[in-house]
Fold this sequence. Notes:
This is Prolamin-like domain-containing protein. With 117 residues, this protein is an all-alpha fold. The chain has helices at residues 2-21, 29-38, 45-56, 63-72, 74-85, 94-116.
Amino acid sequence: MVKLNTQLISIFVVVVLVYACVPASAVEESEAKQLWDTCLLKITPNCALDIIANVFGNGTISDLCCHDLVQEGRVCHDTLIQYISDRPSLRANETQYLKKSDDVWNHCVSVSKIAKN
């Protein structure tokens, strides 16, 4: 029961973060729903939070989350990070966030390649 509550809370936090961070003018409602349906459901809420924490803070990302991220795909990853970094409060450091996003992606691709071998 506790695990289910933790998962529900994690999902709620991810939804709130995405909707809070996505500028209304950047994404039409149908685009946001399509992005949600095709991208965010491929990774766990905890991994989504780890990715966001890594790009926009000092968080870490596990090998398992890296695998999920690579399965999600580069377009989904880039689009989500771009939407979040486009917030007025984050725009000043957008270049830094996009660089960290690339670093996370490259790290995760290398981790996924090693896991396959």
